[in-house]
Amino acid sequence: MKNLSLRRLDTAQLADLVRKNPGITIPLVGASTAVLIWCIKDYQDFLALGPGGVPYNIFGWAAITILVRPFALNEKDATWTGDYPSEGAHQEILGLPPRKGGRAKLSGIAPHRQMTQKAPESMKAPLKELFDDIVKKHPKVLETKRSLYEKHHDAIFVQSSLLLDPLSPIPQTARISRGEIGHIHHDASVHLYFSRADAKILIEKNWAERHRLARTKPFLGRVNMFGVAGTYLMIYGPRDEGELETMRTILKNSVKFMTGIEDL
């Protein structure tokens, strides 16, 4: 009853304020309408990304908008590499050519999706085979499980035995991600983890950009928020056989880093 009375009092006070100051009515209505229109459009954009990570409904959208988006990188900062080292990248990554055609456009935070320059359907099966094959070839250090990030796709993981062993050579990044190395999306774009030096090269050669939660420096006193480490990248989907081979090189070096085994 007390809360109800307070609400009635607030409503009465607001009505009295509007009556005494009729000039504020139009700005209030205009602002409320603008916010409502923005929310509707943003929710539609969220649904257009498809399922992934959070619930595929208004509650998932609200969680991302209120709890996650304030901590996310700006879209322009997703291609910034000033906090990554200039030396130490794998030779195979250094040897990759620049990606042709410039960057693809990405959208969203969770889910995070590629919107332009998408891979053709013919690339999807070979890409999945590439991921399946590397797990089959290295069953002692890799396994396939449902992605902890996406929840709708399988992902490559560091073997649980390595993850639980405090003496294993895996980097701290693998512990932050709870062992998840990366996964493929329905559009054939790929999320993967890398060393900082490799991440710098891949972004600068236009093969990738950061996930918008991939911060390396504290923000509001926090880092590795929501279980996302600072080198979590989106790799644009392969558009032809040549780019599929590039993806093979990229995946192999991601696995090397996340398992701590260079002679994989």
UniProtKB/TrEMBL annotation:
Pfam families: Luciferase
Superkingdom of this protein's organism: Eukaryota
Luciferase domain ranges (all copies): 178-253
InterPro entries: Luciferase, Luciferase_dom
Secretion signal, residue range per the UniProt entry: none
PANTHER family linked: AMINO ACID PERMEASE_ SLC12A DOMAIN-CONTAINING PROTEIN
The name this protein goes by in its record: Luciferase domain-containing protein
Species of the source: Cadophora malorum
